[in-house]
Records
---
Amino acid sequence: MTESWSGAAPARHFSLENSTAYAAWRDLRLANQPPSLADLIVEVERIDALSDKEHAALMDRIRRCNFAVYAERHPVPGRDDKNALRALGLRFGLTSLDCNTLADEDGVTPLSVHRDGPRSRYIPYTERPIAWHTDGYYNHPPRQVRALTLHCASPAAEGGANRLMDYELLYIMLRDEDPAHIAALTREDAMTIPGNDEDGIVRAATPGPVFWFDNDGRLAMRYTARARNVEWNADPAVQRAAAAIRRILDDPSAPVFQGRLEAGQGLVSNNVLHTREPFRDDPAHPRLLYRARYHDRIAGS
Ligand SMILES: [Fe+2]
């Protein structure tokens, strides 16, 4: 089990020394951005039996911005949505489920409002908003969350949308503003997540970078905007870079998608940055989403 953050050298375009490769990758990435959330939604028959065409359509979106949204055409009565979500993950090469102590034993977590009991103390199980983050930002290196899927069985009575942003787009905005931001954010002591966080997992503090590179040299990100969940390195370069992230994400003109998952819709993603807006739950028709987190990145993305 490795405790190191960096798998391999970054892909050529992520090297700060290679501005030519970066410019070519950047221009292609910006040119291929989907113009609206509607362009990211793919209608499918059933997520547990995707056709090749449906899979290809979702992959096309994922390659362009690290996520896609599916919308099942018809509800599937009596289906086990947890099994269906796992089957969907397998179709995208996702096998390494991240199990936390609050997940059901099979690693797929039902998210609903808990008004009492142990889960009620943690934000995901309340109606409160969740600030910008990537999932599992507090995990240690061998268990970093690279992919995230969500399936909506039943939306909230009101609200509960997600805002979503591709972390590669954020990387571009930061590097274009000042490459020193990238140098600061790839430092292995850039930020520390203190032990014991809102998900109720007992664990040691996790120091590490914001951006790092996996075994294929691909970019990955860990982040939370929740100030009490993170200690930033006091170095002025890191402080400036962290402030730049906050400024970009809070800017109303940021390239952010916002939408609400309705029943039968879901997200397939390489753990992109996201929020959850506040909502109102109706106990007679409670909000229910299923969430799966994986240590793999989506195959072929
Ligand atoms: Fe999340």
Note: The CA atoms of residues 113 and 283 lie 9 Å apart.
---
Amino acid sequence: MLNIRYSDNKRIFNLHTEGIPYLSVDLLDRLGVPNLFTTRYISYDPVTGTGIKGLRQAVMNTEDVAEASPVCRRNRNILAHQLGSSISMECITDQKHTNYVHVASKEDLGIPTVGNFALHRHYVDGVVTDIPDVLLTAFGGDCPPVYIVDPVRKAAGLVHAGWRGTLGRIPEVAIANMVVRFGCDPADIYAVVGPGICRDCYEMGNEVYDAFASEWSRAEADRILSKYPAVDADGKEIPGGKYHLDLREANRLTLLRAGVPEDHIEVSNVCTKCNSDVFYSYRSGRMENEQTAMLVNRFGGAV
Ligand SMILES: [Zn+2]
């Protein structure tokens, strides 16, 4: 049953069940920007409540490349077509948990991939573009994508924001590139922190707190990391508990710092681990696959 549990009643996403099912972000839909975030489902019938799971969208290891690459590529092309695009327009990155962002050029589009990745051309975790109709793709199995669009300059960015990219403020790096390269004004930008792991599910070591406290500030670290009661493998209480990281709030703070207006930011209320029956989730055990996030640099509406 493709039954998603939301952490509040806000309508952030729309569910589409035609073809390969996906969520779209309501804010981006209203701007007329084609976008998606996939699930485990290959197909789903909302009338009978039944579907086929096991969608392969990302290549998970090097042994798998030869067999999985064509399957993932074919599935991404179906998804692209569902957005009125094609993987001939796709720009796809390495995703190495960096905060590096690439400015897409025409040479980057639709090139054959090794695994998920465009011949390892770019050691980056985000792409920005002002080329019309470019399709940006990112993967995540708990790490949220951050969708960034500027309807005035008609530019878009998509970043993969795991904890390391979040620490490196990758959404701000993307926006800085959009400002410098495309003349964007952050006041015109809309941004969405997409589905990913929630604070309750995201236990972290002390070193993550220390990293945020030194690279951000102690006050910010205290805001986005909180101590939860915790037990060790034998059920014994861990003195002081364990830190939990709020990736949603961390990336929202970074978007505000980059100058995006508060009322232009949406934050996911869908956790991939709380919904691990619907979404692939790295933290829920075996990493079987990842979700695909897609964003097309096209604007057909107005908020
Ligand atoms: Zn959760």
Note: Residues 197-198, 200-201, 271, 273-274 surround zinc ion (CB under 6 Å).
